[in-house]
Specification:
The protein has 433 residues and is mostly beta strands. The chain has 1 helix and 31 strands. Strands 1, 3, 6, 7, 9, 10 and 12 form a 7-stranded mixed β-sheet that branches.
Length: 433
Amino acid sequence: MKISLIFVIIACSCIVAFGQIPDTVWLEDWESGWGDWYASGGVWEIGVPGPLGPDSVCSGYYCAKLDPYPENTSTKLISPLIELPSSAENLRLGFWHWFDTYHLDQGQIEIKIDHPDSDWVAISEPFHLSGGQWTPYLISLEVYMGETVRLAFHINSGGHGGGVWYTDDLCVISGEYVPDLALEPENFENGWNDWYASGGVWDIGPPDSPGPEEAFSGVRCAGTVLAGGYPRLINSRLVSPPFYVPNDEPLLKFWHWFHNRYDDYGVVEIKIEHPDSDWVEISDHFNPSSQVWTRYQIELDSFAGEFVRIAFRFDVGSPGNFPGWYVDSVTIHPTDDISDNAESIPLAFKLFDNYPNPFNSQTIIQYNLAEPSRVKIEVYDLMGRSVTSILDKYQSVGHKQAIWDAGDLPSGLYLYRIQAGDFRQAGKMLLLR
């Protein structure tokens, strides 16, 4: 059975992660079971996570899984035939996965054109050791446009076995997403936005113990396991979408926080968007510890005028279990530009309208702090009764955000109120189910 790409927008974690407005979508979330997928060597299952895997699926109720795979195993989870469009902008495969394997075992994504003389071709790097959590991965499919193909998740284990590999929310999408880091810093407030993790571990969201108390700007940042220490034996990149490096003496700037074991380190790399290009280190090695947010900058003169990707690569030996590396407010500026959006200090306290409004389930409340303050944000119903406290903590100067999840509350008009020192202000928000 052939599956043709359909032109719809589907609200799921896959689409939210990979680009802001994907144009072409094919989605497999395994909520209806196997469909026309099959396993070449057994072992693969469709269902809920097992005892060795994640606490939950990436979205919905079911996913594809190996939990655990036996020793000396080589098996593929193979897709139905998929007709790829002959003309599409930035056609790519995206999926989420979670893995924890023995160091000699590895998983890989393969593709095969529907032709008698075609062979399986690896289109991803190997996945092995521990990913630690659900992370997204992206693969360009532009060289396969116009072809009918099958995809495969291939695990190859040696004599050890006993590992796991889970995958969920597989999609083929198109539509260009090219960030302009010179105009707007990447502060990860909108999630992954076509960033992806090459070897698991990386996450995007609010930081938690034992990492920094808060993101550098806003609510979210990127980090290696946001709630807990990083696992052992890691070599994983947080990879950016391709972006253009301007010609006016460009500087890459970012803010970071790190606390690593003495021989574990982070490093920034860059790669020109070309099939023959390799990753090149362009920063110092960051270790062992800087438990405050600090700025780092890198001259990109030799890459001016190029489309590139940058990566924050984290390399860990054994045993791991330290807080890790956190990154925020990634931007590019000319060398002579002393301004920095991420560093701007508000001149006055201010509460902004929440967004979106109306909203379903979650909304973002933004505000400016002109001086360090203890900030309280509370939600009330129209009768003036307290519904919940969103925030009650001391925060530094800057532009901040708080996210409110309304949970099971009924539709209706709610009030939100901020208090920061002597500053007090309220706003209205409409919850629609």
